[in-house]
Amino acid sequence: MPDTARPQVLKRPRARDTRQPKLALGLLPDLVGYNLRKAQIAVFQNFQGAVAPHDITPGQFGVLILICENQGLSQSELGTAVGIDRSTMVAVIDRLESRGWVVRAPSPNDRRSYALELSAEGAALVEELIPRVRAHEREMVKDLSKAEQSVLIDLLTRIARTG
Fold it and tell me: What's the pTM?
């Protein structure tokens, strides 16, 4: 009869030979999450270079695009669209407002909420960034055919729906 009171001891990995140039990754290369994260880092870093010197994140750019395309959008509608909670959305809008890119206007439909609009400076910024972001996207997918790009977007969308 096995002794169930004793904890199982995991086999220790062998010591890494520091002279060995390649790091052992174990199961990581086979994990979707690991590969998504590596791709996200590469996309983020390239995005930062593309939009310099504006110091704007991909998430902030996405928020500006949504406001641009949906003038009068409420913070709660925006938060739902981008999948972030109310308090985080308030902080994002506070930051964009403090930079002069977004204006909170009184909502014509609900006195308890604000209608979000781009300021003139925010609209000009979006117009300046759109070609840069399009160039960034082309750079990121340059090794993929149009069909592969469509498949990738479809697969990522399907993964996002499971979350």
Answer: 0.80
